[in-house]
Automatic annotation (TrEMBL):
Protein family according to the UniProt entry: Belongs to the GPI inositol-deacylase family.
Major enzyme class: hydrolase
Main location: endoplasmic reticulum
Function (record text): Involved in inositol deacylation of GPI-anchored proteins which plays important roles in the quality control and ER-associated degradation of GPI-anchored proteins.
Lineage: Eukaryota, Metazoa, Ecdysozoa, Arthropoda, Hexapoda
InterPro entries in alphabetical order: AB_hydrolase_fold, PGAP1-ab_dom-like, PGAP1/BST1
SUPFAM superfamilies, sorted: alpha/beta-Hydrolases
Protein name: GPI inositol-deacylase
GO cellular component terms given for this protein: endoplasmic reticulum membrane
Localization: Endoplasmic reticulum membrane
Enzyme Commission number: 3.1.-.-
Topological type in the membrane: Multi-pass membrane protein
Signal sequence region: none
Length: 424
């Protein structure tokens, strides 16, 4: 009898395990990310510098589109530098989605701002499984930051984008004292920051412990807020006394989690108490979806938001040279605007329409209906919804596809009706 009970118990437990595995790995939302396509033929120009001899198996590349160049000296670089750090088994070529969108955005930019994207080649090392790679990657990243900054006539600070374990390496490079002024901001995409995904060897444990000790002494810790995906101390006053500690505190850190589709790095591991802002892709304005671990570097919705933020924190001097804003408070405001919630929300206003207003008015009394504009809209279109017939329904749901970002949608309620004039 006892043996039968044990067999049944083991069978039940195994069945629960299979159900849980199926739920975690199969029952996830469909990938709604749009693919990012290149606007030109991707080109990767390898940068040569003498320090590279210390790490001959690594490389640093500059991304551009157009005719093949043999030397970076023949390229006119006046933009602000962005350095991409790949993660576990990641390729430097993953930068092409972010870089190509930035190149296209620079062509349609009233502020005349450009970004220069660089990427590190770690030879697709499995840094998430073997910690012996991490120290070498950290030291090579330090060299690359110096090389990229020194390319320009006036040494510029760099924004680092780290994907997966590349984000942890970017966080750990802060241990290299003296380079804080060359790092403006760090964006972590699906990176296990404070705790590793798996701890297979002593080197991984040592890498995380050493970084934790350093940050706990030199970096302010933040607590997550219950009502937002930002942090409590976002509006703290950053000291402008340029001590070593304040210089590192001036570096803006933004961590981004992929959500339930990311089966490699769970969302809880992407949160760091040392990040200024944490956001999940499902709650980022104009993204609103979950990204799996690999698609987070090419998901068009997320790629556009990241580039918009970087463009927002860049400025142009009198010589049309592009730099990043040094004041952290302004960068924090921009980060909140793009990754948390828009700061320029429109207030409720009163609008008055009359018969002379050139627009089309249409009234719809159905509960469910659709509207298709094959050739777009060439005039104002107003849709009236008759809701007094359906008093039991309290909410209204609207799904919009194919809307150009330059267009606007407004919703309002009728407050009074007097003659031919409507108040809204």
């Amino acid at each position: 009898m006892l043996k039968n009970f044990i067999v049944v118990l083991i069978t039940f437990a195994f069945g629960c395990f299979l159900y849980g595995a199926r739920y975690i790995f199969l029952e996830v939302e469909e990938n709604a990310c749009r693919m990012t396509y290149m606007f030109g033929e991707p080109q990767f120009l390898k940068l040569k510098f003498k320090e590279n001899k210390e790490f001959p198996h690594y490389g640093l590349y500059y991304y551009y589109e157009g005719p093949v160049q043999q030397n970076i000296k023949y390229l006119t670089l006046r933009g602000a530098p962005v350095l991409f750090v790949p993660g576990n088994a990641g390729s430097f070529k993953q930068v092409r989605s972010l870089a190509s969108v930035a190149l296209q955005k620079a062509l349609d930019n009233e502020r005349n701002i450009q970004l220069n994207y660089f990427a590190i080649d770690f030879k697709e090392q499995l840094s998430g499984f073997y910690g012996g790679y991490l120290e070498d990657q950290k030291m090579f990243l330090k060299l690359c930051i110096q090389v990229v900054s020194n390319i320009y006539e006036k040494n510029k600070s760099v924004i680092i984008i780290g994907h997966s374990m590349g984000g942890k390496v970017a966080q750990a490079v802060l241990e290299q004292r003296g380079d804080f002024t060359k790092i403006n901001s760090i964006i972590f995409i699906s990176s296990p920051l404070d705790i590793p995904v798996i701890n297979l060897d002593y080197e991984i444990q040592k890498f995380y412990v050493n970084n934790e000790k350093f940050l706990s002494i030199n970096r302010e810790r933040y607590l997550a807020h219950n009502e937002t995906n930002a942090c409590v101390d976002l509006y703290q006053n950053v000291s402008y006394f340029r001590s070593e500690s304040s210089l590192m505190e001036n570096i803006l850190m933004i961590s981004i989690g992929g959500g339930n589709r990311d089966l490699m790095v769970q969302e809880s591991l992407t949160i760091s108490k040392y990040s200024d802002i944490h956001a999940m892709t499902s709650s980022i304005p104009k993204v609103w979806l979950s990204c799996d671990h690999l698609s987070s570097v090419w998901c068009l919705q997320l790629v556009k938001v990241i580039n918009r933020f970087i463009f927002a924190v860049a400025t142009v001097d009198s010589r049309n040279d592009v730099f990043y804003l040094d004041e952290k408070g302004l960068r924090v405001q921009a980060a909140i605007n793009y990754f948390v919630k828009p700061l320029n929300r429109r207030k409720v206003i009163e609008l008055y329409f009359n018969n002379n207003y050139e627009s089309v008015w249409d009234e719809q009394s159905k509960i469910v209906y659709g509207k298709l504009f094959k050739n777009g809209l060439r005039h104002y279109y107003n849709q009236l919804l008759t809701i007094h017939k359906y008093k039991d329904y309290k909410k209204f749901f609207m799904e919009v596809t194919g809307l150009d970002e330059n267009n606007w949608l407004f919703a309002c309620l009728e407050t009074f009706h007097e003659g031919n004039s409507l108040g809204w």
